[in-house]
Design a protein that fits this description.
With 408 residues, this protein is of the alpha/beta class. Helix content is 42%, strand content 16%. The chain starts with a strand and ends with a helix. Bound molecules: 4'-deoxy-4'-aminopyridoxal-5'-phosphate. Residues 71-73, 76, 100, 102, 147, 151, 176, 178-179, 200, 211 line the site of 4'-deoxy-4'-aminopyridoxal-5'-phosphate (PMP).
Length: 408
């Protein structure tokens, strides 16, 4: 298969060659179990501890505060349950409507089991309201769980201010940093209110099925997965040695070259955004244009069906993600865009494009050419768009398109 035009880097990323190279010895002679007492196993143990130090340097925390797991879904589940066990007298959880399902679904499940769950609203730019948080939080709040940056829009939450508020009420703070690692500076010494933080290796050029959980020293902790003494009792099960070593290498790269990576991603993302907006009329940006990840743009194309756009992009070997996903035959609009009050018609025409440190100008230019041609074609055949090519939709057609979804 030829290399795709890959603009889906919030879904997963290209494994860094340095990370792949680092795991090669583990695929061969270094197959020892890191929990074995013999020197053969301890050689692998040593590699894991080096990786732990790399992750600790990335987060600016202590190696002993980092445990490895299978990724951010597990990290989020573990952190939520651990926080509730550390505050057994409290029965309230605060989170945000735009969180990842690995937080929202855990919280919603707990809502049926004796906990009260508040899902904070966001405004049209994707930001939560600190006053609403202040009004909701109380001495009964065990946990405030927020993501550092949103996977669909890239919008960044003010983790420090949220943490400070939580601390005023003695609540624990969990931050899902799955999308922030490798794209923002994460300095846990500068964020003392954060008690738990999750990252996922495959979101920043490591391998899939591996992540890390930060638990601040002194915070009560109960493992979710039991049955062994691995990870100093924080997560049972023989470690994913390949994933962990790759994560260590990815963390080193992300830390050492962060500024250059951010600058490159921002340049590519802005070129993409400007290019598509110049070539297609009626394109809107979903989310805050400024306070967002440097690699993410979420664009709404009026009079275009996002799923059709995605299918036509797929036929041209372009990878991106639509604002509405086809699940079990029905089109489910993104819960993130819905929470931001993006109208249904606009959600259905929304697509997320995410660049990476490896994205090139040529790839961006090819994407802009191909996607703008597909958008024009879809508008020609759209019942709501222009029929006589090539022209953009009229105001009346735009209104008809909106009205259709208002009825739906
Ligand atoms: N949180 C966020 C914000 C994510 O984007 C993702 C991945 N889509 C996850 C959690 C889950 O990560 P993982 O794939 O490592 O389970």
């Amino acid at each position: 298969m030829t290399r795709p035009l890959y603009f889906d880097n919030n879904a997963t990323t290209f494994p860094a060659p340095e990370a792949v190279e680092a795991v090669l010895p583990l695929l061969g002679e270094f197959y020892g179990n890191p929990s074995s007492q013999h020197a053969f196993g301890q050689k692998v143990r040593h590699q894991l501890e080096l990786a732990r130090e790399s992750v600790a340097r990335l987060l600016n925390c202590k190696p002993a505060e980092v445990s490895f797991n299978s990724g951010a879904t597990e990290g989020n589940n573990t952190a939520i349950y651990a926080a509730l066990q550390a505050r057994p007298d409290r029965k309230h959880i605060v989170t945000v409507k735009t969180e990842h399902s690995s937080v929202l679904e855990v919280a919603r499940n707990l809502a049926g089991r004796g906990y009260r769950v508040t899902e904070l609203n966001v405004d049209s730019a994707g930001h939560l309201d600190l006053d609403e948080l202040k009004g909701e939080i109380s001495g009964d709040t065990a946990l405030v769980s927020v993501m550092w940056a949103n996977n669909e829009t890239g919008v960044i939450h003010p983790v420090g201010a949220i943490g400070d508020l939580a601390k005023q009420f003695g609540a624990l703070v969990h931050v899902d940093a799955a999308q922030a690692a490798g794209k923002l500076k994460l300095d846990l010494a500068e964020e003392p209110a954060v008690d738990f933080l999750t990252i996922s290796a495959h979101k920043f050029h490591g391998l899939k099925g591996c992540g890390a959980l930060f638990v601040r020293e002194g915070t009560g902790f109960e493992p979710l997965i039991r049955g062994g003494h691995h990870e100093t009792g924080r997560r049972a099960g023989t470690e994913n040695t390949l994933g962990i070593v790759a994560l260590g290498a990815a963390a080193d790269l992300a830390r050492r070259k962060l500024d250059a990576h951010i600058e490159h991603m921002r340049k590519m993302r802005d070129r993409l955004e400007r290019g598509l907006m110049a070539k297609c009329d009626d394109v809107t940006l979903n989310g805050d244009p400024v306070s967002r990840l440097p690699n993410t743009t979420n664009l709404g194309f009026a009079c275009v069906d996002g799923e059709a756009l995605l299918m036509m992009m797929d036929a041209e070997n372009i990878c991106a993600t639509a604002g509405s996903a086809c699940r079990s035959g029905s089109m489910e609009p993104s819960h993130v865009l819905k929470a931001m009050n993006v109208p249904l018609w606009a959600i259905h025409g929304s697509v997320r494009f995410c660049v990476s440190r490896y994205t090139t100008e040529d790839e961006v230019d090819a994407l802009v050419e191909k996607v703008s041609a597909i958008v024009r074609r879809l508008r020609e055949i759209s019942p709501f768009g222009a029929r006589s090519a090539p022209r953009q939709p009229t105001d009346a057609e735009l209104e008809a398109h909106k009205a259709y979804f208002a009825r739906a």
